[in-house]
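Following up on my earlier thread - several people asked me to post the actual chain instead of describing it. Fair enough. Here it is, all 87 residues.
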Amino acid sequence: MDREINVLAMVKGEERYVFLYDDQNRTETLRMLGRYAADPQLSFTWYDAAVMSKKIREMAAADTPASTTSMVAGNGRFSFRHEQDMI
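Reply from S.P.:
Thanks for posting it. Predicted structure:
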């Protein structure tokens, strides 16, 4: 098993929120943050979800080699393209 597991954790008072996910389940993890924030029985807020989702995206961007991709804006959306495609 050569899959890398990402760990994201938050301590909030007595509660501990720990998310383990691989790159293939990143989108599902982001959705889970929203479900936790929408649950009134948890102290997990929408702000917590926003902070943690930003961290997930930063971790994903750090895994992408900067020398091979760059972010290009167009029509209000972002996409990753190889530098060779932009010449």
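The longest strand covers residues 6-12. That should answer part of your original question.
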